[in-house]
Amino acid sequence: MTSMAEFQKIMVPLFRHIAYCINNSHYQVAERTHLLWNNEHIFNLITHNRQLIFPLIFSALKRNSQNHWNQAVLNLTQNIRKMFCEIDEELVLVCQHKLEEKNSQLSEAA
Question: What pTM was computed for the model?
Answer without folding.
Answer: 0.89
